[in-house]
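Q: I'm writing a short explainer about Nitrilase for a general audience and would like to include a description of its predicted shape. Could you first generate the structure from this sequence?
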Amino acid sequence: MKVAVAKYTIDAPRSYAEFADKQARWLGEARAAGAELAVLPEYLALELGATFGAATQGDLHASLIAIQQYHGAWLELYGLLARELRMHVVAGSFLIAAGNGRYRNRSYAFAPDGGVLWQDKLQLTGFEKRAAVIEPGDALRVFALGAVRAGIAICYDLEFPLPVRAQCEAGARLLVAPSCTDTEAGATRVRVGGLARALENRCFVAQAVTAGDAAWSPALDTNTGEAAIYAPMDVGLPADGVLAQTRGRQRWAVADLNFAALDASREQAQVANDRDWAGQGAPAIRRAALTEWSADLP
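A: Of course. Here's the predicted structure. Afterward I'll give you a sentence or two in plain language.
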């Protein structure tokens, strides 16, 4: 499977039509590169806040209310592009109204046959908690991409091993990670999380990122990081775990993912964290005991 992850430049579209044209151009580039799956970044829908006046653009709560009018058109747009381009599309995330003035950070995936599904972000960042209107999701999913199972981990979720482990135990061999970070430290945390989850679970991780500056938006003001596709660091796979990564103004990182080779690598692995995972549950090491200093050696 050929996968493309975006280093997506945040702009200030003047209309929904302008935004839609941009999506068609970007995804068209991914398809021209041979991608069967294209991944866009977290908070993508907040770019639509630019289509409203300055007062709305500069107010996160007002932006969240305003962009809800685009939700139906959003679903229609990416569904149409997935069908026309004959490609699976993970359309970043849309902060969707969940009732009572609350929103969920939801990542939709679209299939070329017209199917659609989603995963809500489970862990909230400090920014999302301070916003006081975003709530976490309450379900963890995996889904089929042809013969391969995949899961979605939205940005901060990639830094938590147990939910990802649950997805991999349900058969996921590809983890899709739309992300958005505004500091180098944040970008590093998500990158290290991606590498760690690939190592632990013997899976591929495909991370998309936002790029550029958007002074008009309190959520998308500054964006850092590189889009990348990660693999376990082992025999027959990249020693640094990086299959592909954007550089500079490069818009897409693209890699061919060989899932048969990934599974076969377990048999010749230097280490196999996925195979040895259960060892962590041994009763003697589930908890650490405080040990007193002693002059006597055992």
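A: For your explainer, you could say: Residues 184-201 form the longest helix (18 residues).
Q: Perfect, that's easy to follow.
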